[in-house]
Write a structure and sequence with these properties.
Layout (H helix, E strand, L loop, with lengths): L7 E4 L8 H19 L1 H6 L2 H18 L7 H15 L4 H19 L8 H9 L3 E6 L5 H4 L5 E6 H4 L6 H11 L6 E5 L2 H10 L3 E5 L15 E3 L5 H6 L4
Parallel strand pairs: 1-2, 1-4, 2-3, 4-5, 5-6
Helix pairs in contact: 1-5, 3-4, 4-5
Length: about 240
């Protein structure tokens, strides 16, 4: 328990407020349907799963030579599809045009998640007493989601060029709100990116563990573990008397 009052609560987004796997699968499927109209030569050569695999192989090869692109998710998504389109015989101009349209469609679908139970209600409750921020390694946008009514700040690894568990995203939050680490809590599902990252930066940290998965890290621990989002306000209140 800390004697310092909590002022800021930071949230991870993917797999903390919604299921990333589900929203990504739905988005990929919708993009593939669009590509069947825009680039039938490509979809004649690739099924949905094989197209995804080919794009991931391109990402892997690219990151071997350009590791700085790790968090440039949007750019990599467009580049990987453009590469495959060119291999299928489309011109550079046509490939880039189709890739851009596919990306915009993906982003539209990616921002239609099915929120976990009590996600919005929890944000509404916390926003009455604390400042809230989003710290995400993904490319979800608080504004496009309509969550900017709760989050005063959105820190994106893509924009920052570095993601959790590195200290830069957490330090950016501290600088923006002019706070000390002990005044902040970070909430997320990932033991490394969220809990280790927050711990290393001096934040309190709450592990959102909806599947009741055993904690396997011996070197560090979350401040508190919760299994339902609705339990977060009570958990935060326990961090200071």
């Amino acid at each position: 328990m800390s004697s310092t009052q909590i002022e800021l609560i930071c949230f991870d987004l993917d797999d903390t407020l919604w299921s990333t796997r589900q929203v990504m699968f739905d988005a990929e499927k919708s993009v593939y349907t669009l590509l069947q109209d825009l680039s039938p030569v490509l979809t004649d050569s690739y099924e949905l799963e094989s197209l995804f695999k080919a794009r991931m192989e391109f990402w892997k090869r690219t990151l071997q030579n350009e590791p700085e692109m790790r968090h440039q998710i949007g750019t990599m998504r467009r580049r990987s599809l453009s590469h495959l389109l060119r291999q299928s015989g489309y011109s550079d101009e046509k490939s880039n045009d189709i890739s851009e349209k596919a990306f915009e469609h993906f982003m539209e679908m990616r921002h239609q998640p099915i929120y976990f139970d009590d996600a919005i209600e929890t944000l509404e409750s916390l926003a009455q007493d604390y400042q809230l921020a989003a710290i995400s390694n993904g490319n979800a946008c608080s504004t496009r989601l309509g969550l900017d009514k709760y989050f005063a700040l959105h820190i994106s690894a893509e924009e920052l060029g570095v993601g959790k568990p590195e200290p830069e995203p957490f330090n950016a939050a501290l600088a923006h709100f002019d706070l000390k680490p002990e005044q902040c809590v970070h909430i997320g599902d990932n033991p490394t990116d969220d809990i280790l990252g927050a711990r290393q930066s001096g934040f309190h940290c709450i592990w959102f563990n909806p599947k009741n998965t055993p904690w396997e890290e011996a070197q560090f621990q979350p401040s508190i573990e919760v299994h339902q989002l609705k339990d977060i306000p009570t958990a935060v209140s326990k961090l200071w008397p």
